[in-house]
Amino acid sequence: MVGRKSLLKRLLTVDLPMLAILTFTLGPYLWMLLTSLTAEERLFTEGPSLVGATIENYVRLFATVGFLTNLIHSFIIAAGTVVVGLTLSVTAAYSFSRFSFRGKRYLLLQFLIINMFPVVLLILPLFVMMRVLGILDTHLALIIANATVAIPFSVWMMTSYMNGIPRSLDEAAMTDGCSRLGALWRVVLPLCTPGIIATGIYIFITAWNEYLYALTLGGRNVRPITVAIQTLIGEYEVEWGLLTSGGIIGALPATILFLIVQKRLISGLTQGAVKG
Amino acid sequence: MLTMNEPMGRAALAKKVLPYALLSPAVLVTLAIVFFPMIQAAWMSLHDYILWKPKDFTFVGLKNFATALGDEVFWISLKHTVIWIALTIPAQLLLGLATALLLNQEFPWRPLARALVIIPWALPSVVIALMWVWIYDANYGILNEFMLRLGLIKASVPWLADPDTALYAIILTLTWQGFPFFAVMILAGLQSIPKSYYEAASLDGASTLRQFWHITLPGISGVLITAVLLRTIWVANSIDVIFVMTGGGPGYATYTLPLYAFIKARTNLDFGYGSSLAVLFTLMLLGLVVVYLRRAGRGID
After folding, report:
1. Which residues of chain B neighbour A212 with C-beta distances below 8 Å?
2. How many domains is chain A partitioned into structurally?
3. Is the CB of residue A57 less than 8 Å from the CB of residue A241?
4. Most exposed of A8, A185, B293, B296 (fewest Cβ within 10 Å)?
5. Has residue A42 been placed in a domain?
């Protein structure tokens, strides 16, 4: 009897409210998915439904709208940002994690402060700067713009991962004849590979999802998926089947990658916050 | 003496320089692509600078800032920014807290729930805007149908086209997007509270509510403050969802300050005035940023 009562209590106080929150969380996404699987002509007569589900919208998306090119642009930009963000921050993170030196606190905080500034404040001067350099509307422009977010983030994450690797390992490597950089390369980096991968994936997701820079600094020749979706909204205003299929495709890579790394990523992200 | 000291001196110097040398790539690049542009933005804000008149870059001092203070749209945008933060952050916080408390309970499908609840956070803002525009659609949107069936409204409401509802509709969208972040942060805080505290409290006969008040809340207060600061800064800055959903309209109904700066620069190509709005907004946020940095700075060393 007691067991049944407490089970009922749990269902009412935990499972049911959780289910309600999940419905709110996933509902909009599932509704978009359902809409994208409904044929355009049925959408306004019968509404979205799984009966007679079709992938016709997706076929159209790739055949007539040319979504594949946009996906490739997004991929180049996101992958480029990952490379730039990770390589530039590895040595910096090592320095923060292993040495104490004058100005360390301020240097570390300057990386934190970058992501607090409004995007607008950066987007206008970056536009002017890139126009002068003649790199507007290139992949490079968007990689640079995304790097403004990726580098500080990656410095923070990698510093926290490297802090988790005992210093004695570096020292052991150095007594065995490694230089400082040798210790970083041969000992520390291999040990934080999981952390580096998680950081890289997170950078990839943010760069993939980024929209304002892409719209302002690119948009004509280089048109990543987010800008393409926004243009779709303007061009195919009422064709919600097509629009939602674009949304699903645009969100897919980020969603899958996120579900893969979320555990490691969240422990890294929340560590600082819990201590602070 | 000198010759003997020299190698030592060099080694010591190398040791001193090494940390800075390792830092230099990241620091130099961020100086070039973040801090230099920001100074440039501040510089532009002191000029008449309209992009299609490239020769015309006249120093006007604080004129743009004076114009802003007399600009009706500036005050409208500021008011919306305040409403926007004052409603979105508490809503995200409460929903996130409830979610975290639930996820901290024992139930069989907890890992699944925890993984799924974060999905909104991973979606591109353009996609989020797209799906909520579809939900709010005046003719075929599911929100209207849902509320009509429940009898909450008598006729379809054009949520995003009505100036009275547009801002609140976007606030709901932002709440949806941002509450998982709170949930995740708070959950981490909850899990750092030792279980023995609760065991001791129930032995003393403390009710669940009292336990929440005296153990849980103090235990997560640090995380709560950090999360609120971070989110406030982030929500205040975020303009992509609004820009795609309404572009600021109808009229000025969904203008926030950073959005106004962006639109000024983007559609009027008025980079001088746009920059000055951006700088003003940044100065307003600076207080929050400083508080956050102080907290974060304590954690270093």
Report:
1. 239-240, 243, 262
2. 2
3. yes
4. A8
5. no
Residues A107, A239, single domain; the answer is: yes
**B293/A113 touch (CB, cutoff 8 Å), yes or no:** yes
ipTM of this complex: 0.87
* Amino acid residing at B242: I
Chain A nearest C-alpha distance from B124 (Å): 4
- State the DSSP code for B270: B
Tell me the residue range of the domain where A117 lies.
56-275
Tell me the residues of chain B between 231 and 260 that have a Cβ less than 8 Å away from chain A.
233, 236-237, 239-240, 243-244, 258
Mutual angle of helices B125-136 and A225-235, in 10-degree steps? 20
| Closest alpha carbon within chain B to A22 | B117
Q: Which one, of B74, B35, B25, lies nearest residue A117 by Cα? A: B35
Using the beta-carbon criterion (under 8 Å), do A118 and B20 form an inter-chain contact? no
Judge whether B175 and B97 are in contact, CB under 8 Å. no
Domains in chain B with CATH codes: 2-44 (no CATH), 74-298 (1.10.3720.10)
pTM exceeding 0.90: no
**What is chain B's pLDDT, residue by residue, as a tens digit (301 residues)?**
444 445 557 778 877 888 898 888 999 999 988 889 989 888 888 888 877 776 777 777 787 888 878 888 889 999 999 999 999 999 999 999 999 999 988 888 888 888 888 888 889 999 999 999 999 988 888 898 888 888 888 888 889 989 899 999 999 999 999 999 889 888 888 888 888 888 888 888 888 888 888 888 888 888 888 888 888 888 888 899 999 999 887 889 899 999 998 998 888 888 888 888 888 888 888 888 888 888 877 766 5
d(CA A275, CA B14): 34
Kindly list the residues from chain B whose CB atom is less than 8 angstroms away from the CB atom of residue A210.
124
Query: What is residue A14's DSSP assignment?
Result: I
Query: Which amino acid is residue B197, in one-letter code?
Result: Y
Of A121, A227, A246, the CB nearest to B282: A121
Task: Give how far Cα A217 sits from Cα of A127, B43, B185, B262, Å.
Answer: 6, 20, 33, 13
What is the rounded CA–CA span in Å between residue B45 and residue A109?
26
SS3 B254: coil
* Partner-chain contact A120 B285, CB within 8 Å: no
Within 210-249 of A, beta carbons closer than 8 Å to B belong to 210-212, 216, 225-227, 229-230, 233, 240, 243-244, 246-247
**Does B28 contact A at CB distance below 8 Å?**
no
- Same domain for A121 and A239? yes
Which positions 74-103 of A are in contact with B (Cβ < 8 Å)? Answer: 88-89, 91-92, 94-96, 99-101
Whether omega before B250 lies within 30 degrees of 0, making that bond cis, reads yes
Domain with A141 in it: what CATH number?
1.10.3720.10
Residue A51 in domain: no
Residue A47 lies in a domain: no
Rounded Cα gap, residues A31 and A8, in angstroms: 30
Q: Which of residues 113-132 of B touch A (CB under 8 A)?
A: 113, 115-127, 130-132
Residue B39: in which H helix or E strand, if any? Answer: helix B36-44
